[in-house]
């Protein structure tokens, strides 16, 4: 039987740390956040933070995810097209908000910080991709989408242009544009 190391996390302390990390991230961006500032705002020691997280990037990502995950519900309207449209629309509304713009900042910082890049890929983007994959697979099971699809490729076709606009071109992303891009993809993946 394997023994647990140390005491379990105190939920109140953990939430104070996550909230402090998130607030500091919103206030000044990733560069302005330090473990010292998080500890000060949460009224804990740096040692407590380092006991639970390996580095600043990990605690900042957890703080961000703690606050942001509930803002992206997974729809189930009974229609694959509507589910994807709502999912993509919710994602765009979130990413273009101040809170969502943090992800673009983190992506930029991740180009210099491999630990941060790994954190946002595994803890933010992979779960979002899994949600989208479930929507595609559900549409395939219901016979709305072609049975020979590769869900991952469909996700790239639907969501790739959104991130291209957000991160590269800076072109606006309106609901009309999201609908237009989604409908374009659906001409190729929907059952005729």
The radius of gyration computed from the alpha-carbon positions, rounded to a whole number of angstroms, is: 19 Å
Q: Separation of termini? A: 57 Å
Low-confidence stretches: 1-5
Please give the largest β-sheet: none
Q: Whole-number average pLDDT?
A: 88
Assign an overall shape. Answer: elongated
Name the structural class: mainly alpha
With helices defined by DSSP (H or I, 4 residues minimum), what is the helix count? 9
Number of strands: 0
Task: Write a brief structural summary.
By secondary structure, the chain is mostly helical. It is built from nine helices and no strands. Helix 1 crosses helix 4, helix 5 (80-95) packs antiparallel against helix 9 and helix 7 crosses helix 8 (151-169).
What features would you describe in this structure?
The protein has 192 residues and is mainly α. The chain has nine helices and no strands. The chain has helices at 11-28, 35-42, 46-52, 56-68, 80-95, 98-110, 114-141, 151-169, 175-189. The radius of gyration is 19 Å and the shape is elongated. It starts with 10 loop residues before the first helix and ends with a helix.
Q: What features would you highlight for this structure?
A:
192 residues; mainly alpha; 9 helices
Q: What's the layout of helices and strands?
A:
Blueprint: H1 11-28, H2 35-42, H3 46-52, H4 56-68, H5 80-95, H6 98-110, H7 114-141, H8 151-169, H9 175-189
